From TrEMBL:
Species, as recorded: Citricoccus muralis
Domain of life the protein comes from: Bacteria
Protein name per its UniProtKB record: Glycerophosphoryl diester phosphodiesterase
Keywords: Signal
Chain segments annotated as transmembrane: none
Pfam families reported in the protein's UniProt record: GDPD, SLH
Example GO molecular function: phosphoric diester hydrolase activity
Residue ranges occupied by any SLH domain in the UniProt entry: 44-103, 104-167, 168-228
Length: 548
């Protein structure tokens, strides 16, 4: 017989959100039966080929697979974007509820004995979860509409409360066959419909969306074994990338001051070293017209003038400081305020931090060594020693972390200043997995010796933090076509097990921030610290205090 849900579980359904994203594809075949794996059993099955860690719905589909609700298709795919058909949806609910049913003769001529999902369909008919169509058919391969799926759940869960009459959708009339089910879902906050206030009962629902819904149901029914536990975060590291270049022109006094006034945990910045050993705060090793413009030569008839287009390592501090930087808005940041001035020295930034009394704000300083073209920046040892000398001279050791894509620089920091925390940056490509020999970026490590495992390499390096790109393309976001997350739950969990924090860069989309925070990352580097503050506020996290 059908398993009724306990009252506590039904009450808990009030907290569940029903996905409302419209489907985009249609399945033409049905998956094989789920097999004998029972919910809660240890999962040894390999991931579906189209459900790799970090992909959309990964945890939900993995839960479906490991619970024995689905084994996917014969080609080892799940097809998250495909519409789920009526036979599949009935089988999913049947397997999840552990229904025990022995069918008799077939109720529907198009779902005969021995056909795929026959037992589940007959169970659904016997329990009056479905009565089929007016012509007596079930149409098992027809895509399930949102309204239909609402009714399947409503009838299977058999709620004891009537739907609230003050909840309505303009496109769901009282005469709609699925009205009561849809209104019940809405009244219990299981489904709130679309942002335009509609429910779109006739739209299909995808297999990925169904996986998410069912796994969330299970989280309520089995609260001691949630499928996607939220990681407690007592303090989240909000890092303002280049001072928060979405708000002010990058790496300027004003950008860093504004970030301090807004309230951040960390100022993230890049450094370069001039020909005479000065440490300046700037990202690019070559001076570009996008960031700076020439004003006048540092000395009459200077053969190196104009300086735009030259490498900073080939110019002296006097030459560099004739430049006017931050003079124009970056078109990538339409709301960016312009703050014009000479290129900052690192010690000037230390002064700004002290002026604001921001003694609890960290500085995440990148040594911008170009390991792939070492002649374009100061030599590694020269670079690292110059940065460390500034930190020590100004007694900033307690407020500094050193980050670098050049892991050889991080090894040198460990040798020269072992008490400073270090962060290993990567864009993924610099690991050069599967390529002959060691990458020049990894300080002598060969990624293939670690099977390309970023966390294992970070352990070998001994760093406190890994700082990977959030995904690709770098300016993409969760939900974009073609976007592939790089950071995933396995990476975060493995890092935490090794005592390593995970702080992805550079994340400007609130939805992607939410995704990463759901994985349990320890911080985020962003061009928009105001956006990240809002996401943190919405999640109930403590916000960094404004300085000054």
């Amino acid at each position: 017989m059908q398993r009724k849900l306990p009252a506590a579980a039904l009450a808990g359904l009030m907290t569940i959100g029903f996905l409302a994203t419209p489907a985009t594809a249609t399945a033409t075949t049905t998956p094989e039966p789920a097999g004998t794996t029972q919910p809660g059993a240890e999962c040894t099955a390999a991931n579906f080929a189209d459900n790799q860690a970090g992909s959309q719905y990964f945890d939900y589909v993995r839960w479906m697979q490991c619970s024995g609700i689905t084994t996917g298709y014969a080609d080892n795919t799940y097809r998250k974007g495909a519409d789920i058909d009526r036979g599949e949806s009935m089988a999913f609910v049947y397997r999840y509820l552990n229904a025990d049913f022995t069918p008799g003769e077939a109720t529907f001529p198009d779902a005969p004995a021995g056909s795929t999902h026959f037992e589940a369909i007959e169970w659904g008919a016997a329990e009056e979860i479905t009565t089929g169509y007016a012509d007596g058919t079930f149409q098992p391969h027809r895509a399930v509409e949102r309204g239909e799926f609402a009714s399947f759940l409503y009838r299977a869960l058999d709620p004891t409360t009537d739907p609230e009459t003050d909840v309505s959708f303009p496109d769901v009339a009282e005469s709609n066959t699925h009205h009561d089910a849809i209104i019940w879902l809405a009244s219990e906050d299981i489904s709130t419909g679309y942002k335009d206030g509609t429910f779109k009962a006739k739209d299909p629902i995808t297999r990925g969306e169904v996986a998410a819904l069912m796994s969330r149901l299970d989280t309520v029914i089995n609260p001691d074994n949630p499928e996607e536990p939220e990681v407690p975060q007592e303090e989240f590291d909000l890092q303002a990338h280049r001072g928060g270049q979405g708000l002010y022109t990058e790496s300027t006094r004003e950008s860093f001051a504004h970030a301090l006034e807004l309230g951040v945990t960390t100022l993230e910045l890049d450094t370069q070293v001039t020909a005479d050993g000065a440490v300046v705060v700037t990202h690019d090793r070559k001076i570009t017209t996008g960031d700076c413009r020439d004003t006048a030569p540092a000395m009459p008839e200077d053969p190196q003038y104009p300086y735009v287009g030259k490498y900073i390592t080939d110019l002296t501090l006097d030459q560099v400081q004739t430049l006017e930087c931050g003079y124009q808005q970056d078109p990538k940041y339409p709301g960016q305020a312009v703050a014009t001035g000479p290129m900052m020295e690192l010690d000037e930034l230390f002064e700004v931090v002290r002026e604001y009394g921001a003694d609890e704000v960290m500085l995440n300083i990148e040594t911008k060594v170009e390991a792939g073209a070492p002649e374009e920046t100061a030599p590694r040892e020269t670079f690292v020693r110059a940065v460390l000398a500034e930190i020590l001279e100004h007694a900033m050791e307690d407020q500094v972390m050193i980050q670098s894509f050049d892991w050889g620089a991080l090894e040198l920091v460990e040798e020269l200043a072992p008490t400073l925390p270090r962060s290993a940056l990567t864009n993924g490509d610099f690991l050069q997995v599967g390529q002959p020999g060691a990458s020049p970026w990894l300080g002598g490590l060969d990624a293939d010796d670690f099977d390309g495992d970023l966390v294992a390499m970070a352990q070998e390096l001994g760093v406190e933090v890994i700082s990977p790109v959030h995904g690709n393309p770098q300016d993409g976001a969760i939900g974009d076509e073609g976007y592939a997350p790089y950071v995933n739950r396995t990476m975060v969990d493995d890092a935490h097990a090794a005592g390593i924090d995970v702080i992805p860069w550079t994340v400007d989309d609130p939805g992607t921030m939410e995704y990463l925070m759901g994985l349990g990352v320890d911080g985020i580097i962003t061009d928009y610290p105001d956006r990240l503050r809002q996401v943190m506020r919405d999640r109930g996290l403590d916000l960094p205090q404004a300085a000054g």
